[in-house]
């Protein structure tokens, strides 16, 4: 690994006090980007999370703190979604990150200028966050071999893992229009299901589930017909967020053959509002998951030394449930699972090299989700269907309530963070969504 | 059926002579919308196909011929894609159609005004056509029971049609970014395939195929969480085009379990440039395909009397191949199949009611493709894998060349039209694409 840029120095501190709290997700080393609307305004603006505040990037520009940047970068910063920023070259993004870091630094030009500071940051509590990018294309992968094996064991006990799994990074196109930002209510969907040999019927799903995932936003895209080599693939990742790929298991089970998931997923997908840039994640890069001795080596188009050496990401993920009763009793959310992103069988670079291997074009702001992050232990399973083994081993929440699948009023809360000895812990914020009751049929 | 609007009168004639030729796809009764760039210009404009000419809608506005329309309609007409137009209310679209019909009519205000005429139309040969809408979401259905049965017979001889088929309008999310307009070359994709028990390998597809489909563009959309009832579903269809859903059968066969088609399809999907509005298709509405006596009735959310009575469309579809050798010998394309859109098991209204039944939101300009249109006879099979029965019964082209799957240099040409006694025949133009050789690995 090369020397750390100064934006990542663990000693760096901000004039925003809350950013120096060791428990914050958003120290000055993180600087994730998002889009916010200040209460009482209609104006969507690019912002940077810093402690419990948001730095308004337009205000940084107006204060002359980003004057060293290229005008194209400044234009992209004035957009109402991150797509234009995401499409900039890596060097421009680095300059932006450096300039924002300097502006917010306790050693920076406005560290003692309270008047300018007041124009630049607003309390996060006073803002509404939007979906960070206009996602034109959403791809959902299936990169956890434990998840694939768990699901396969339930549906095909004799043959849990299909023969293609260890060769092909399996994925499918998800529905882009129904991506919503954390905090958006998710209505229990209606759909067609079949119970045993009864004729199918139409009604609310009885098996509403979440899937704990990590999303990668595409940076610059590739032209149609030109593939991205695995050696270059990391340059195509702008950054990462948290994803809840809501799933109606009964609708999915009845519809999915032979063309895959459709209405069992397309009612909603929730993303966290803050995108942690790849450049903030350098300290947490680790080797790719080691394959078992009898696993095949990746085909050459999916293999690079560098990706094997540092294509993994040491990121911890947890999912909690807060039921209506728990909310009313002011209880804390109940942690259902905790897992490691680095348990994934395929790296993000492998997903990109595979996705573009046929010439499929990616665009800035496209979302590539990892698929459910499940690890080898029971408490690292990233969906309820796995955690409760299709409902046969229901969970007991801290309120004493039992859960096989999600109930109306349940809020699902996903959190993720990276930590490593000698570095500041950085977090991804939250990806939350509460289940609202179904409409009448 | 209600009385025909005057735009559909079979006696209506245009001052554009070629529009009165009975062989044209684009008589004045049709008036399909598209987006064109005049040679030598960079300016994308909304146009209407009329005979062998294109009427420039901006020029119609400038000539004062659309003055009766709402300013919002005129704004939408000035956009560089049809999405804004597609999102207008049905009544606005009818007013636009009526105003364009009057402007181009042999009885209309400029029928004898050669100077104004010259400002309004340009020869289609002098324009390049663009993808008509910026497609944010592309869904591909599987609505031909013959196609599903043919494919199933090859892959699961004992159980060709899966148990969900007659209950659920099966579909999946396609890749939106790689949609291209007719005339765009399609490069033979690379991909991972497996031959029998050999280890998989990476290289050019050896089984490149087309799929003959019809696409419906979504008009106004629905809000997330609010479904579209089947009684209202037709109002959500702006119009129709032709689609070639290119498929690499060997890539698809190895990747598709359990999450459906991905890279076997996502390298390219070709659409025809002209969108025939639903209002032009009124004379060709026919009853939905009759279900067999032992087929289940559609569930209530997929059933309406009106849809059963007039939810079908009497549209003929054909696909031809023009090989490199045929092109060099100036031969005509060889017709591989001819079929009827009304052979589909599910109507377009059923597809929309199903798609939104879980609250999934559709947006103006979204594309819903029908899936391969295959009929009960051999010569109505809409893909090569069906037509050559997985290559076991190769076709002989008129040049004497043999085809199991597509060869480099082959151009696939899809055409479609509606005709009915007592009405003008209207056509959908062409959806063409030529296969270019694969890149080196």
General description of the model:
The structure is a homodimer of 441-residue chains. Chain A has 441 residues and is of the alpha+beta class. Chain A has eleven helices and 26 strands. The first copy, chain A, has helices at 57-62, 71-77, 83-86, 90-104, 114-120, 145-155, 249-255, 305-310, 324-328, 348-355, 384-387, and strands at 33-38, 44-50, 53-56, 121-123, 127-130, 138-141, 171-174, 179-181, 186-187, 190-193, 201-204, 208-209, 212-218, 237-244, 247-248, 269-271, 276-277, 285-286, 312-313, 315-322, 334-340, 367-369, 395-396, 402-403, 411-418, 426-436. In chain A, the strands form seven sheets. In chain A, strands 6, 7, 8, 13, 14, 16, 17 and 22 form an eight-stranded mixed sheet that branches. In chain A, strands 4-3-2-1-5 form a five-stranded antiparallel sheet. The longest helix of chain A has 15 residues, at 90-104. The N and C termini of chain A lie far apart (57 Å). Chains A and B meet through strand 7, strand 10 and helix 7 of A and strand 7, strand 10 and helix 7 of B.
What tags apply to this protein structure?
441 residues; 8-stranded mixed beta sheet; 5-stranded antiparallel beta sheet; 18% helix; homodimer; alpha+beta
Q: How much strand content do the residues of chain A show? A: 25-35%
Structural class of chain A: alpha+beta
Q: Please state the CA-atom Rg of chain A, rounded to the nearest Å.
A: 22 Å
Number of helices of chain A: 11
Q: Let me know the average pLDDT of chain A.
A: 97
The most extensive contact between chains is: A-B, 64 and 64 residues
Oligomer: homodimer
Distance between the termini of chain A: 57 Å
**What is the 3D form of chain A?**
globular
């Amino acid at each position: 690994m090369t020397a750390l840029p100064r934006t990542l120095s663990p000693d760096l501190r901000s004039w925003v006090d809350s950013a120096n709290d060791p428990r914050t997700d958003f120290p000055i080393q993180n600087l994730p980007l998002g889009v916010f609307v200040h209460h009482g305004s209609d104006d969507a603006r690019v912002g940077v999370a810093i402690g419990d505040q948001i730095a308004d990037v337009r205000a940084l520009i107006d204060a002359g703190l980003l004057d060293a940047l290229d005008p194209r970068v400044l234009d992209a910063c004035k957009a109402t979604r991150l797509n234009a920023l995401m499409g900039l070259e890596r060097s421009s993004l680095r300059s932006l990150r450096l300039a924002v870091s300097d502006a917010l630094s306790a050693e920076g030009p406005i560290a003692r200028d309270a008047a300018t500071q007041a124009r630049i940051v607003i309390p996060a509590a006073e803002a509404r966050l939007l979906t960070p990018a206009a996602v034109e294309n959403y791809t959902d992968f299936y990169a956890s071999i434990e998840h694939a094996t768990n699901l396969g064991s339930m549906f095909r006990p004799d043959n849990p893992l299909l023969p293609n799994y260890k060769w092909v990074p399996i994925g499918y196109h998800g529905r882009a229009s129904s991506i919503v930002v954390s905090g958006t209510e998710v209505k229990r969907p209606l759909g067609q299901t079949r119970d045993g040999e009864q004729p199918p019927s139409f009604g609310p799903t009885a098996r509403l589930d979440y899937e704990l995932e990590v999303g990668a936003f595409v940076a610059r895209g590739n032209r149609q017909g030109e593939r991205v080599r695995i050696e270059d693939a990391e340059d195509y990742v702008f950054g990462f967020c948290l994803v809840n790929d809501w799933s109606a298991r009964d609708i999915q089970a009845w519809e999915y053959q032979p063309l895959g998931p459709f209405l069992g997923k397309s009612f909603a997908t929730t993303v966290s509002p803050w995108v942690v840039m790849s450049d903030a994640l350098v300290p947490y890069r680790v080797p790719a998951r080691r394959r078992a001795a009898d696993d095949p080596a990746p085909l050459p188009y999916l293999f690079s030394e560098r990706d094997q050496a540092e294509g993994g990401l040491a990121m911890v993920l947890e999912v909690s449930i807060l039921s209506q009763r728990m909310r009313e009793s002011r209880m804390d959310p109940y942690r259902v699972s905790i897992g490691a992103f680095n348990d994934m069988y395929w790296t993000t670079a492998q997903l990109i090299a595979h996705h573009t291997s046929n010439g499929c074009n990616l665009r800035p702001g496209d979302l590539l989700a990892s698929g459910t992050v499940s690890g080898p232990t029971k408490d690292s399973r990233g969906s309820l269907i796995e955690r409760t083994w299709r409902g046969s081993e229901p969970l007991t929440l801290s309120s004493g309530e039992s859960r096989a699948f999600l109930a109306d009023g349940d809020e699902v809360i996903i959190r993720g963070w990276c930590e490593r000895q000698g570095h500041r812990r950085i977090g991804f914020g939250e990806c939350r969504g509460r289940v609202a009751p179904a409409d009448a049929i």
